[in-house]
Design a protein that fits this description.
This protein has helices spanning 13-21, 25-38, 55-63, 76-89, 128-137, 155-166, 171-183, 187-196, and strands at residues 45-49, 68-73, 95-99, 112-118, 138-149, 202-206, 210-216. With 218 residues, the chain is of the alpha/beta class. The protein has a single domain (13-216), classed as 3-Layer(aba) Sandwich (Rossmann fold). It has a seven-stranded mixed beta sheet with strand order 3-2-1-4-5-7-6, sandwiched between helices. Helix 2 packs across helix 3 and helix 6 (155-166) crosses helix 7. The longest helix is centred in the first third of the chain and has 14 residues, at 25-38.
Length: 218
């Protein structure tokens, strides 16, 4: 099935609130457990690209209190939700939220020991924007861990996944989730992106709908 890019980034308040209220706790916690297991013990400064309402980074900050996390999203509405969640969690000393767009974030070259991202890659019209920004911002030898949806072979399969995962969520969330599944990349496409970015990362299936891309920067 050919990729169908999403019509726009999630900037509408209703979309953002529906996403923030949805229960993605299982996959978010699974990602955090993977990061906690794989991230080097000496990593300190961590960047999360496409943080959404902040649930993943709050979970990670609780699991790994020594990390200093910068969480970035392009949507002003999402960043407001993330800031509120960080404040409510009492983690504002260790988690900072920043509104900004990929590429071109106002962050220094080689600033981070680790760059993470969950369910962000498929939102980008040009996926290379993510990989080039990762290359720019990570320290040599730094840890990279990206989890993203993977595109399946038919719209019908995407509808089945939405029904299985989000049947009780708001209609706007189910529509966005369906569009995301159609906009996601296949394993072969992701591996081609990594080759083009000269990133020698492992790309493997993760669960029933995700890809896990992880390893170390050159």
């Amino acid at each position: 099935m050919q990729r169908i890019p999403e019509p726009e980034l999630m900037t509408d308040d209703a979309q953002c609130q529906a996403y923030a209220s949805a229960d993605f706790g299982v996959s978010n916690q699974a990602f955090v457990e993977i990061v906690r297991e794989l991230i080097p013990a000496n990593a300190t400064n961590v960047l999360d690209l496409g943080c959404g309402p902040g649930d993943v980074m709050i979970r990670l900050a609780r699991a790994c209190p020594s990390l200093k996390i910068t969480a970035v999203d392009g949507s002003p509405a999402m960043i407001q939700l993330a800031l509120a969640a960080i404040e409510e969690s009492g983690l504002s000393v260790t988690v900072t939220a920043l509104q900004g767009y990929v590429p071109g974030l106002p962050l220094s070259v080689g600033q981070f020991d680790a760059v993470l991202s969950k369910d962000f890659l498929h939102h980008l019209p040009d996926p290379m924007a993510l990989w080039y920004e990762v290359r720019r911002l990570i320290k040599p030898g730094g840890f990279i861990c990206v989890m993203d949806l993977r595109r399946r072979d038919s719209p019908e399969t995407a509808r089945d996944i939405v029904q299985a995962v989000a049947a009780n969520e708001a209609d706007v969330l189910k529509t966005d989730f369906y569009n995301s599944l159609l906009a996601a990349f296949t394993p072969e496409e992701i591996r081609e992106q990594l080759r083009a970015a000269a990133l020698h990362l492992d790309a493997t299936l993760s669960g029933d709908r995700h890809m896990l891309i992880e390893g170390y920067a050159p």
